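Final report, closing paragraph on structural work. Over the funding period we assembled a curated collection of sequence-structure pairs, and we close with a single example.
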Amino acid sequence: MSMSFDMYMNDVIQPMRDELTKIGVKELRTAEEVEGNFEEYKSGTSLVVVNSVCGCAAGLCRPGVALALNHEKIPNNLFTVFAGQDKEATAKAREYFAPYPPSSPSIALMKDGKLVHFVERHEIEDHSAEQIAKNLTDAFDKYCD
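Its predicted structure, as stored:
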């Protein structure tokens, strides 16, 4: 029985994608989807999660985002791209995150099309989901109306 690498990876990462989409985060899989959604939802606030297969994404980042989204104030729009899988979409999203270098996982908060808060991988590793959620909810309180 032969299975292609892409098919194998899709099976492996689908639960990681689902962990965010099931809580209302819209997955952007192409550069055009990123550009179109970022432009369409430019006003207000948008959370962008750079998802990944690394352990800190599974054990810390995605659960931290889920906790944060239970907060009273949350961004108007919720998006995710998947690093290493949807490469063009991730590269396009990262264009909006300057001056920060690529980081997976990472979380960006944008207001009116501008980056206002960014959580890099080093702020996710060795932090609990609760600490990551607190980082995000503090930013939500500051930037989300």
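The chain has a mean pLDDT of 94. The two ends are 54 Å apart (CA to CA). We thank the funder for supporting this effort.
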